[in-house]
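Aggregate trends can hide what the representation actually does to any particular protein. For completeness, the protein is quoted in full, as a sequence line and a line of structure tokens.
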Amino acid sequence: MKKISVIVPVYNVEKYLKYSVGGILKQTYKNLEIILVNDGSEDNSLAICEEYSKKDDRIKIITVENGGQGRARNIGLKNSTGDWILFLDADDYYDNNAVEYLVELAEQYESDLVITPLRVVRDHAKNRDDFSIVNEKIIILNKDRLIQEMYYGRLLGATPCGKLYKREVLEKWPFPDQLFEDLAIAYKHLMYAKKVVVSNQYYYNYYQRLGSTTKSKYTPQLEDFYRAIEKNSKYLEEDFPDNRELSVALKSRMFTGGFQVVNSMIDSGMTKEVKAKSLEYRKDLFMIIFNRKITKKDKIKHILFAISPNLYAFARKKYLSN
């Protein structure tokens, strides 16, 4: 039975650990090593983790100064012993038979990276037990198609959550020390893995708070998003220099994903910077409108913002929340 190391960065999540860590302890697959990386928590998270460790000797706690999720994941990897790695954000949770399913796929297809989609949930009270497979679809794609699907966020995303990695993939390409570290390195994970298997079955529950339009102030670190895009652009130049479809997919990701930066600028009253961003979006408006792989909602956001930042800000507040 393969040993799976589950790595959980923990930072001020005392309300959710009973779902995330508690859920991992309920897994039907038992050969687990659970690495809780306390990333400088200032609430009661560490104490809760210590209580869990007293009840289950599979748990190992590592406490470090706050340095972000990417750094915490790397530290967890270095302190783990499993040949396979699974990540979990501390406010999310897996279905109880998730690890068993992922391991079965890895073995069946002799894959070193297994990917499942994220199920958005609003309520932790509806914690999910074992679920049977329904209309399962397993997809094995060429690398260029995998990358394209990641940029559009359809079959798979850049997040490491919901993915089972062979250890060597992560040791070769650790997470960079920046925001949007997943987008900055996911390309390399997909390219390095000898075989990637994608399933349509939902086993990872991504907790998303209601009211996604909650104001968030701009910080220079948010520009890491564009640095991650630049890294991906260099990757494409090296590996797929003549693939226009991938270039369009990456540019589309830059615009759709860039709304997180745009929204923070609007919330921070950065009128001049927002206007400059609006002009950038206007230049590629038709590319977005006629791209069938972009969702209707993202097209509407792009059109509104390109026409008028004020109109977009109004619509965002009234109609575009999740």
Summary: The radius of gyration is 20 Å. The mean pLDDT is 93.
